[in-house]
Write a structure and sequence with these properties.
The complex is a heterodimer of chains A (262) and B (260). With 262 residues, chain A is an alpha/beta fold. Chain A has a domain at 96-170. In chain A, 38% of the residues lie in helices and 24% in strands. The longest helix of chain A has 16 residues, at 184-199. Chain A is globular. Chain B is an all-alpha fold. Chain B has one domain. Helices cover 80% and strands 0% of the residues of chain B. Chain B is built from 11 helices and no strands. Chain B has helices at residues 3-19, 22-41, 46-82, 85-89, 95-127, 134-161, 164-179, 185-191, 194-206, 216-220, 230-257. In chain B, helix 3 packs antiparallel against helix 5 (95-127), helix 5 (95-127) runs antiparallel to helix 6 and helix 6 packs antiparallel against helix 7 (164-179). Chain B is globular. The chains are: A alpha/beta (262), B mainly alpha (260). Chains A and B meet through strand 6, helix 4 and helix 6 of A and helix 1 and helix 4 of B.
Chain lengths: 262, 260
């Protein structure tokens, strides 16, 4: 594996390290049915970076993100976000998270939901009043503040999910399957939004199957396969390796090599 | 611990109960009871009047208890099933604060339901021009409040041990056992074999004796019953708090270990 972690970049950038994953192992099930989901993975994400986390279904992307958020517990290894252990709720103070699939309380209005999440994130009432219309407009849900969420389509729910992740203006955004459920226009708007956030210096770490999206946004790509990190390198390096074709070409080529090797 | 965060979670439970019309169903049942009151007054029979009051209090207590069990048993499994828990726990909110918020929300919602029932009951009493011994009635309300807390905590621990349907069924059975059969334990104990006696002693440690919180008969026959002494009320409060703490801690330990 050629990776930032092994190359020692963590040492030079340790003060700017936002996510630090060390020898992370996780499994599902017990006894004979035990499946090793993560096999000692290591990586870091630094302040201001936009990192794409790619891999096939079942590669271990969502498991990694769940551990980063403290939803799952690793079997072994250490994970720190902003220098704090992920078991500590304070580690999530500066994170905006979008789950892979989530429904939002259908009995709530969009404004109430954002008030709930913003309030939990420590925003005052006046801050919430100011931010809610802005963040809803930013994700294309302007004027929907008082609509009940049960009337929202899947795409609108995903937009609302992005809005809730941005309400506290977090420094780090962790998105699991970024554009899932969005139509082409929604994807385009989301890409533009993330480019803006990236320009503002936010750190973005997301998983996606949309490799074009990863290619257009990311500085660096981490590729995971069967619980192991295959590659962790700048996007330009990966593109060079496949003759400057595309990330998709690199991805397919790498996986084919893996299958041949196996 | 952040109280504001805990109360925000509690508010979601309250909003859900209000907007999913669970509470309206309780109001409708209350109105039906009111109609029964009017029907009973037609006969002008004192015995029936007392029967109504006793029945109404027991019915309202049971209906609220079932509401508490259903509400508490479905909170966590629904959060897991709909994945609404992820964006919540992605905030700086500990699992303890989350669970406490849910517990308080269920307890407060149950008290609101019970409050509605009591308004209906008092309207019925006024309609029948029946005097109420307020001291005993207030003690009845207080002990019922404590019982709702015990049932809410029990619902949460059961929902962490089994699925929603099973948790509701077990919770209802434990409520029925604790509020009826448990009062016969002394008699049964005398007639049991030594092994069965040990089992009965074990049961008394795990299943709360809910009949102790029921002062409905004393409320109805308050003309012959004095209010319960302070010492007994204090002992019952400690008893309820003990069960709430044990059940809540059990639910928290299971919830904290659960991978989402």
């Amino acid at each position: 594996m050629i990776g930032y972690y092994q190359q020692g970049m963590n040492e030079s950038n340790s003060s700017s390290c936002v996510i630090d994953v060390k020898k992370l192992e996780a499994s599902y099930g017990k006894g004979r049915e035990c499946t090793q989901a993560l096999k000692g993975i290591c990586f870091q994400v630094h302040r201001g970076e936009c990192v794409g986390f790619i891999g096939a279904n079942g590669a271990g992307k969502s498991t990694t993100l769940k551990i980063l958020m403290g939803f799952r517990f690793p079997d072994k290894g250490e994970v720190q976000v902003f220098g704090r252990s992920v078991g500590n709720p304070e580690s999530r103070e500066r994170i905006g998270y979008l789950p892979e699939v989530a429904l939002y309380y259908p009995f709530m209005k969009a404004r109430e939901l954002l008030s709930l999440y913003g309030g939990l994130g420590g925003l005052s009432r006046s801050e919430l009043q100011e931010r809610i219309p802005l963040v809803l407009a930013r994700v294309g849900l302007g004027g929907k503040e008082n609509d009940l969420l049960k009337s929202f389509s899947k795409g609108m729910q995903q937009r609302l999910g992005i809005a809730q992740s941005l309400i506290t203006e977090p420094e780090l955004l962790i998105y699991d399957e970024l554009s899932s459920g969005l139509d082409p226009l929604g994807r385009f708007e989301l890409r533009e939004l993330l480019k803006d956030l990236k320009q503002q210096g936010r750190t973005i770490f997301f998983s996606s199957h949309e490799l074009g999206e990863v290619e257009s946004l990311c500085d660096r790509v981490i590729m995971i396969h069967q619980g192991e990190i295959l590659r962790d390198a700048p996007l330009s390096t990966l593109l060079e390796e496949c003759g400057d074709r595309s990330l998709e070409a690199f991805y397919i080529q790498t996986l084919q090599q893996q299958h041949k090797g196996a | 611990m952040k109280i504001v965060s805990t109360l925000s979670v509690a508010r979601t439970v309250w909003l859900e109960a209000l907007r999913r019309r669970d509470i309206y169903a309780i109001v409708i049942i209350s109105c039906v009871l009111m109609a029964v009151v009017m029907g009973l007054d037609f006969f002008h029979l004192e015995g029936l009047n007392k029967f109504y009051r006793e029945f109404a209090l027991k019915f309202m207590s049971t209906a609220t208890a079932i509401t508490v069990i259903v509400l508490s048993a479905r909170q966590l499994p629904r959060e897991f099933e709909n994945r609404t828990i992820y964006p919540l726990l992605a905030r700086p909110l500990s699992r303890f604060e989350f669970l406490l918020g849910k517990f308080l929300g269920v307890w407060l919602t149950a008290l609101f339901c019970f409050g509605l029932f009591m308004v209906v009951f008092l309207l019925g009493m006024a309609y029948l021009q029946t005097n109420l011994q307020w001291a005993v009635f207030l003690q009845y309300l207080y002990l019922q409040t404590m019982m709702m807390g015990v049932l809410a905590a029990m619902g949460f621990v059961l929902s962490m041990l089994c699925n929603i349907d099973a948790a509701i069924a077990f919770g209802s059975l434990l409520f029925l056992f604790g509020s009826t059969m448990a009062s016969m334990m002394n008699t049964v104990y005398e007639l049991s074999t030594p092994v069965a006696q040990w089992m009965l002693i074990g049961l008394t440690w795990f299943i709360p004796q809910l009949f102790l919180f029921d002062l409905s008969e004393k409320t109805v026959h308050a003309d012959i019953w004095p209010p319960v002494s302070f010492e007994v009320m204090a002992a019952l409060t400690l008893y309820a708090l003990l069960f709430i703490t044990v059940y809540f801690t059990g639910a928290l330990l299971l919830f904290r270990r659960k991978g989402l």
